[in-house]
Design a protein that fits this description.
This protein is mainly α and 269 residues long. It has 12 helices and 5 strands. The mean pLDDT is 88.
Length: 269
């Protein structure tokens, strides 16, 4: 977790090293309201994207005084001394305007480095305030540790599921447990942390919890899918597989299995 503090700047190679896109599963980037971030500083961006010649071109288009002086030069009726005097005025006007145009350009470039813009283009996860940043990061870290532990438990029983799918499942279970009205609390790190802690305590005290029950269901489904895939890929071992499984069943389970097999055989195809 990376936090850019007030008046802090993340630039150049440091940005490339800390960009959360390197490993979005385990890296998050946050910025204070008064922080800056970008490969180049505002002044450097102006030097590359809006050089002096570009500023001069813009001021000749916008400034009435420069347009007037340029019009005089373009008439072609001025004497050599008059032309020289007008060119001097033109140059003086350009030099007077350049600092203002450069300042405006640098301020505009700086807007692209602020937290709001970084958030808009997806460079950071959230904008934080210095007063509440410590509390936010504390609960965020605790939530991520517990959430990743739950994800790893699910991944261990079903490798086919992606982390994105597992995250969606956890959110659905949280909403089902808390109620759809409180589903918005999934975005509250403290609430989610307390939920995971409650699940851990419930499982420790009673051996059961919503999280543990759902993980067991996923494990069961995965085992059934593995058996089905094995038999589908090797139909010649289907009967042997049934016999092997039958040996591991209790008497009552064998009786129930025989009834199920009989009923399947009586279903018309």
């Amino acid at each position: 977790m990376v936090y850019i503090p007030p008046n802090g700047e993340l630039r150049g190679g440091s940005w490339a090293v800390l960009d959360h896109k390197i490993n979005p599963q385990y890296m998050e980037l946050y910025a204070d309201e008064e922080s800056r971030g970008g490969v180049l500083e505002a002044e450097g961006m102006v030097e590359i994207k809006f050089r002096k010649k570009d500023q001069l071109k813009l001021m000749h288009r916008l400034d009435a005084k420069l347009r007037e002086l340029r019009a005089k030069l373009d008439t072609g009726t001025l004497s050599a001394d008059e032309k020289k005097a007008v060119e001097k005025q033109l140059h003086q006007r350009e030099e007077a305007l350049l600092p203002m145009y450069h300042t405006v350009a640098a301020s505009f470039a700086d807007l692209h480095d602020r937290a709001g813009r970084m958030m808009e283009v997806g460079c950071i996860q959230d904008i934080l305030k210095w007063k509440t940043s410590r509390s936010f990061l504390y609960w965020r870290l605790r939530r991520l540790l517990l959430e990743n532990a739950a994800k790893n438990r699910i991944k261990a029983v079903s490798e086919r599921l992606s982390y994105g799918e597992i995250g969606s499942m956890l959110r659905r279970w949280f909403t089902e447990d808390q109620g759809s009205v409180n589903g918005y609390l999934w975005d509250d790190n403290k609430a989610v942390t307390n939920w995971f802690l409650g699940q851990e305590k419930q499982e420790k005290d009673t051996g059961k919890s919503l999280l543990a029950t759902n993980i067991a269901t996923i494990k069961k489904s995965q085992i059934m899918q593995n058996i089905s895939d094995m038999i589908t890929g090797n139909p010649d071992v289907a009967f042997d597989a049934i016999m092997t499984i039958g040996q591991a069943l209790t008497t009552s389970q064998r009786t129930e299995a025989a009834q199920v097999l009989t009923s399947i055989g009586s279903i018309p195809t």
